[in-house]
Amino acid sequence: MDQFLGALAFAKGIGRTLVLPHLVEYPDRFSSSVQIPFQSYFKAEPLAEYTKVILMDDFMKNLAPKIWPKGNRTVFCYMSRGNANDCAAKDGNPFGPYWDKFGVDFDKSEFYAPLSFDPNFEKHRLEWKKRFPAEKYPVLAFTGAPGAFPVIETNVPLQKYIKWSDMIDFKADKFINQFKNDPKEKFIAIHLRNGIDFKRACEHVKTSKANFFASPQCLGYSQENGEMTEELCYPSEKTIFKQLGKALKKYDAQYVYIATDAEDMLVKLSKKFKNVKFTKYTENNPHVDLCILGKADHAIVNCVSSFSAFVKRQRDSENKTTEFWGFKAKKRTEL
């Protein structure tokens, strides 16, 4: 959702309505990507409090035939892709399957270099309006999301407009109520990003201490809070045991919810903390995982993970406490 927050700010900055896209997924049983309606996971109404939005299905059904008819559809990209002098907007997966879902073919390409998507650059914001006025270009369709990854610092607060759909919220609450005996009892949620893919990605820390993936969320965008370490990126079991133990004592929690895409450590943690009940969601549903992580009384997440970053932004917007595995803020020297 990092890039979505950027797209949200960009649309507002240039005075356009944001078409809420279908979300791309890659289920194991499909050879191609599938497109899930935005409202399946998130609510549109809170976003409308920030800027004008419309669901993709509503746009294609009610507005596209009038303002973006077949035969007059332009796609935008920074520069030409491949050898052709166009955006090649439907080449590859998920691009082709995504636009085919809505029966969209493009008739023309426009290159917007050297403009950026950050509306904080006043010169670029005005240039977008000048070069691509709504009267001539009623729809700005891009080959990729008009937002940065990781999310730029000024767009982080926009997370407060991202609210789960009733379906996701219901599933999360139902599961929490099943593992807690008393609603007043507290639980801590942890995110373990410990798959082999992430372990390999973290190996680069041996040669670079610079920000990596979502690490600005704890190190700071200028690394004013410290530098990258292996323990921060891929925490050891020793760190996990020690940090979780302190949190359990501090928050007097009786339960721990585990979200992970790999080793859940459930057996090891249960042996280490015998008076604590550990649990995880029984289905492979990362959205419910994220929702439960956001509802916990306290959360411990991975500084480098963009999955964890979603949780941190959400919890910050609701004034809930969150900490990072292996993170110790750099001591500041007062002058």
Major β-sheet profile:
5 strands, parallel
CA gyration radius, whole angstroms = 22 Å
Number of strands: 12
List the secondary-structure elements in sequence, H or E: HEEEHEHEHEHEHEHHHHEHEHEHE
Question: Which percent range describes the beta-strand content?
Answer: 5-15%
Structural class: alpha/beta
Shape: globular
Distance between the termini: 39 Å
Poorly predicted regions are: none
Strand order of the largest sheet: 10-9-8-11-12
Output mean pLDDT: 95
Looking at how many chains there are and whether they match, the oligomeric state comes to single chain
Helical residues, percent? 25-40%
Q: Helix count?
A: 13
Explain this structure.
This protein is of the alpha/beta class and 335 residues long. The chain is built from 13 helices and twelve strands. Strand 5 (74-77), helix 4 and strand 6 (108-111) form a beta-alpha-beta unit.
Which terms would index this structure?
alpha/beta, 5-stranded parallel beta sheet, 3-stranded parallel beta sheet, about 325 residues, globular, 13 helices, 12 strands
Please give a quick description of this structure.
By secondary structure, the chain is α/β, with parallel strands linked by helices. The protein is built from 13 helices and twelve strands.
